[in-house]
Amino acid sequence: NNSYQLSSVPLQILFYVNGIYYIFYFLVTLAMIVYKSQVFSYPDDFLAPDLALLFIMAILEVLRLYLGSKGNLTEEEAPLGLSLVITVGSVILSVYFLVWQTYVLKADVIINAVLLFTYGLESVLKVIAIAAFVS
Amino acid sequence: MGGPGAAAMAAALGLGAVFFLLLPLRAAEPSVELAASAASPAAPPGIRAAARARTRSRPAPVTDVAKLCVCDLLVAQCDVNCCCDSDCSAADFSLFTTCSVPIVTGDSRLCSQKAAIYSLDVEADPPERIFKLIDQVNPSIFCIHATNYKQALSFSSPEMPASENFDQLLKQFGNPSFSAEPDSWNMNTDAPNPSDANETYRYKYGVPIQTVDAFLRLPSPVVSSWCSDVNPAGFLVNQATKCTRSVSVEKCGNIQAVSMLFYINSSILAVPKSSQMVNITVQSIVVQSLNGMRTLLNGSDVLRLPLILDELCINIVLGVSYHITYTDAGEIIEAAASFVLGAINKEVLSIQQSFEISFTQVNTKPVPLSGNPGYVVGLPIRAGFRPQGSGIIQNTNKYSQLTILQSTSNQDCLAAQGTRTPILFGYNMISGCKLRITADMKCQPLTQTLLDLLKGQSFPEYVASFGNSQAQDVLDWVPITHLHTSEQSSCQIPVSLEIEVKWTKYGSLVNPQARIVNVTATITTTTAKQLPSGRERTIPIISSVVFTDISSPAEPGYKAWPTINAKLPFDFFFPFV
After folding, report:
1. N or C: which end of chain B has fewer CB within 10 A?
2. Do B10 and A127 touch (CB under 8 A)?
3. Domain count, chain A
4. Which residues form the domain of A79?
5. How far apart are CA A48 and CA A50, in angstroms?
6. Looking at the partner chain, which of B3, B146, B185 has a beta carbon nearest the beta carbon of A104?
């Protein structure tokens, strides 16, 4: 039965785990930005970009997971490819929160590292799935 | 389709992301202001050079923990128990008992920072100092790993004012308060309101009266007796000055300060910093001739300028008297000047000019005050009569309201009729004369004459308690109490009048005002024995004024004793209550 089903089960599992983890990531990052703004000197010029990028990242993530999941389940490569492109943006944003944020705490480093690892794994699986769909 | 190409590129990017994880993640060093570099005293050179370029004179901050020592206070000397002091030798360390500064660290919120630990090894003989440079790790997961915001972890050094940024710094910090965050973060800047351009100023006491070009000048002697023209007249400050000016007949028309035009030329501003002007009108001109006789001129609206006539220079100003009328809102509405013009001849090298200025409130008759509100020492006491059912009426001459006898040179009471001197507040006075009694003097006329002599023609009944008491406020006036000490005998002649004025300090302790509380006039009489004919006697007649301060001393106020407010707890007697 497996030869007729090209959808990648590990990819789907990873999407599901990614979704749950991202909710956790978003809430934790938002809470830490609030904590930093209270404890450290966090002027508005620096706070606004950080918050804006966090919300953009959330929107991109929802889009990415939806397109990826749909593409994987309907075995179409177009949504999956689009999801892969959006992953690039998410990776850049994650790197921003890892390196270029105003205050990078150790907790930030940890959760962003896990997110990047997840993105990397997802990308590999997406490429494999696209290759399977195309051929 | 570009799918495989795009897929390959995406795969590469994904692998790149994975490689990111494999790289050791380190704190971004150039962005951390606090240098955590090992043993080198220089902070990242970029920051240091920029700081040096901006602050030419301020020394660079020390950020190396190995070199930082807060207990090193004495320069080139060893501080006691300061283990990080570089001026201390090993012999000094052996005498220490403890280290006052055991550890010097950077910001403890960083995940990893350098720390210098100083300790004394007391086991060794002699005791020696141990210095260790370690990396201190903050175990919390909320420690700062990196920061991209330069000012986050250190105090920013303030800008050094230079000619470029002075205006901006003044705008930012020149107010009584300023916010800690830079100006660009706030929406409203607290610049001083320009709205007080609409607020009008008013003259206040002592403020120089402004004219169109500068100030109303009242020439006065400054250091020597020569006139200085830069003395401004103050609002409501009545002044009278006399000074000397050098003149000569040749320069008659050239000296500005002896010409009338100089004193009435510029108009006075009605209100400071406004454009309302009040012209100075000429009220009267008195011409003084060479021998000192003064004549009042009839038409006084003609400007008389100095000119040379028959080797004399006439129409030079010898005296100016300004009269300014003001409203109670502090505006000047009228200004008038009265001149005394004189003439000089060739021998005169300097003249004395006298200047005077007085202020009158509009719609009031100038009632001379002796203080506002309390009496001022040296001003005459105000006194008057009170007819039935009306207010107080006073003599318009303020120096004639309450007077005592004035001693004359010949000291004969009956010859010196009429000269009296005003009683000035705060000045105790005594005066007298000698009375020669002959045998044929009758008692009653003598008594009456002496009473007239002592008390004067119109001895008042009421004395104002404040220097500015109004005539219509009868309760502000104190009645004069008369006391007669006399013995019952045939002929009593008054020999002394003693006026005792009791006054008290009234009002605030900082600025007490003098207030007259009681005035007592005591007449002492003596028996005039009938003299055998041909003999005469001389009796001294004395009148005096004494001012007594009866103000009660200020009472200190003490705070209440502190009370012990101890209460037992509610359930102190637990099992029984």
Report:
1. C
2. yes
3. 1
4. 9-134
5. 5
6. B146
